[in-house]
Amino acid sequence: xxxxxxxxxxxxxxxxxxxxxxxxxxxxxxxxxxxxxxxxxxxxxxxxxxxxxxxxxxxxxxxxxxxxxxxxxxxxxxxxxxxxxxxxxxxxxxxxxxxxxxxxxxxxxxxxxxxx
Length: 116
Prior knowledge:
Blueprint lengths: L11 H8 L3 E5 L4 E3 L7 E7 L2 E5 L7 E6 L4 E2 L13 E4 L3 E7 H10 L5
Antiparallel strand pairs: 1-8, 2-7, 3-6, 3-8, 4-5, 4-7
């Protein structure tokens, strides 16, 4: 499993511990990955493909906020209570990503909260 470039800023020990939690996933084009307002219990680092972040606008079509691609992180809502998605996300191309379980990552952070 290759380490995503964005994680190389972490000390080697922390990066290795985090990557042990990674699970490789695939989303076909058009897959709805998360819905705004749903429980945020995971996040992803995109390996290939692109994902659009969107928000519901009452009385209008869903508005695309941003498009994310290679080596970008999808999902920060798991970090902040009440841990619900503030945006939705859809794969606009086939996507390969590393998926991380938010609870496991929070436990990992609690085990070693101090930066070195």
